[in-house]
Structure formats: structure tokens, C-alpha cells
Amino acid sequence: MVKLDVITTRGGDGGQTSLGDGTRLRKDALRIQAIGEVDELNATIGLLRLQADPEADAMLARLQNDLFDLGADLCMPGTGEGLRMTEAQCLRLEREVAAMNEAIPPLRSFVLPGGTPAAAYAHLARTVARRAERSVVALAAAEPVNPEAVRWLNRASDHLFVLSRRFNGNGAGDVLWVPGGNR
Fold first, then answer.
1. What is the pLDDT of residues 90-117, one digit of tens each?
2. Which of 24, 36, 27 is nearest to 135 (CA)?
3. 25 phi and psi, to 5 degrees?
4. Contact 85, 149 (CB under 8 A)
5. Angle of helix 54-74 relative to helix 147-167, nearest 10 degrees?
6. Where is the signal peptide (predicted)?
């Protein structure tokens, strides 16, 4: 169980922070950057939830909880002990994407971010997910990282994209790219 009774510790005043195993790292370290971008994604999804219907809100709540699991995974160096992302979490996202996508016609062009407010927020969350994924990939190139962490972020961005289309009337309100349309 997590217990936080003191929030201002002054431990980070010198530009360092602690990982779950007690290791101290600079706040600009790759691992801390990745954890921060995962946290930013979680906050962005919190904004998206303000626009969501109950079914989408439940999916987004699961995403947010998984993002805390992902942060816990990343705050423990290596791939050994600790709370780790699992294949089951990735498979759940795949099932949700497939279920949402059944009602949506195939794309004939790229989708521009926009449409309904909910869809626009979902696109914003998708781009933050991609940035977090790039940071975790960069971290994985430098030191061991649970491969399910990268896989989960990739699935989460797919999930947010399909959810944006769902919010746009199952694709009917998508704003489509018109190649060369302004020449």
C-alpha cells in the first residue's frame, strides 16, 4: 500500500530524484524523462475523460491505472522484481481496439486531429503516448527495460486513435487529410 504523508521532502532540490529501489538519478536522466512523459500522458487522459461517455470513461480509467503500473515498472531499473507491465494488459488493449474498430469503416485517407472536442483530446493524448513511447524506446536502447512497457505504449496510442474515431461518430465526423488540397 502506498502512504504519502509528506509531499515536500526537499530531496529533489539539487536536481536529483529517487527511483523505487532508492537509486538517485538526475532529473534529466532518460529514465526520469520517460517516467515524466508517462505521467504527462496520464494527466492528458484525465482531461480526455472530462469529454468521455461512460463506456469510454471506463476504458480510459483502465488506461490511467495501467499508466501508474507502467510508472512503477519504469521506476525499478532492470527487468527483475517489482510491478511489471504484462502481456495481459497489452492483450486487453488489443481487444478493446478491435471491438471499437468493428463499427468504424476503413480509412481512405489520414485523419487530421479534430472533429468533436473528445476526438481532439484523444488525438492530443495519442501524440503524448507516442512521445512517451519514444522516450521508453530511447531508455531501452541504453539499459534493460521490460519489453511489455514499449508494447503497451504502442497499443495505447492505437487505442487512443481508434477512440478518437469513435468519438467522431465512428469515423463519420473524421477530418480527413486532402493531399495537396491547398495548392
1. 999 999 999 999 999 999 899 999 999 9
2. 36
3. -130, 155
4. yes
5. 160
6. none
